[in-house]
Design brief:
With 248 residues, the chain is α/β, with parallel strands linked by helices. The chain is built from ten helices and eight strands. Helix 2 packs across helix 3.
């Protein structure tokens, strides 16, 4: 049994909107609260921000195994339901978004990737699950690792709280599947071929392999200087303005 604290995330139902919808999905183990500050920006005024919790990470877990493909199917179904053409995907969620956009009749045609996985080195959190045979031990060790990082970083502290709320089996399964996927494919190639992609990043946050790949493989990109790996938290207005600029 998971002895770590688990909290079910709930958000109030939104009123119907005639604004164009944009789906937002969080990275490894996170949930949609990372995007809440965007609701009070110019982006939130012009678009209907669909802050989507993924199964096991704020939404009820799947009856099937939690993998990149099963989560992509979940995202594609939501996109079909609301007719969303744009998805904002953070970190590992960029792989999920790229797989969703490839699914039959999925309307997603634009992926705004927030420092999404480009090379295997980008799976610096999720990929460590491959070293564990037990989901509880993995989650416990991951939380300890984040505890050390969170002592001097409030954003990591928030992310640590999100991981604490994640379902341990879903977290472990997704991490192992991400490691396996990244060993077989180059995530950046899958992302670039899935839709119209705009890559938002601060070069200081990215491994050398990712920066090298971006240099060698032209992709629409927006540099967000002086931001953390979670720009929607530390600089929501900057991110909102850049998104408006690029999709208008």
């Amino acid at each position: 049994m998971d002895k770590t604290k688990r909290v079910k995330m709930t958000f109030a139902a939104k009123q119907p909107s005639n604004r164009p919808p944009i789906i937002f999905i969080a990275g490894f183990g996170g949930h949609s609260s990372m995007y809440k500050k965007l609701e009070n920006t110019v982006l939130g005024a012009r678009y209907d921000l669909i802050l989507l919790n993924l199964p096991g990470f704020g939404a009820p877990i799947l009856t099937e195994k939690t993998t990149l493909n099963s989560l992509a199917d979940f995202v594609a179904k939501k996109a079909r339901e609301i007719g969303a053409q744009i998805v904002v995907a953070h970190s590992v969620a960029s792989i999920i978004a790229s797989l969703a956009a490839r699914m039959p009749d999925c309307p997603l045609s634009t992926i705004l990737s927030l420092e999404g996985n480009i090379t295997s080195e980008d799976a610096y959190f999720s990929g460590t699950a491959a070293n564990y045979a037990d989901p509880i031990i993995f989650k416990t060790d991951f939380l300890k690792r984040l505890d050390e990082m969170a002592s001097s970083n409030s954003i990591i502290k928030k992310y640590r709280q999100e991981i604490e709320e994640a379902d341990p089996i879903a977290l472990w399964q997704l991490g192992r599947d991400t490691a396996d996927f990244s060993s077989k494919y180059v995530p950046g190639e899958i992302l670039a071929s899935a839709a119209d992609v705009i890559y938002f990043y601060n070069p200081e946050n990215c491994p050398d392999s990712t920066l090298k790949w971006l240099q060698e493989n032209p992709m629409k990109r927006v540099v967000l200087n002086s931001t953390s790996h979670w720009p929607s938290i530390d600089q929501p207005d900057l991110l909102a303005n850049e998104i408006i600029r690029i999709i208008s």
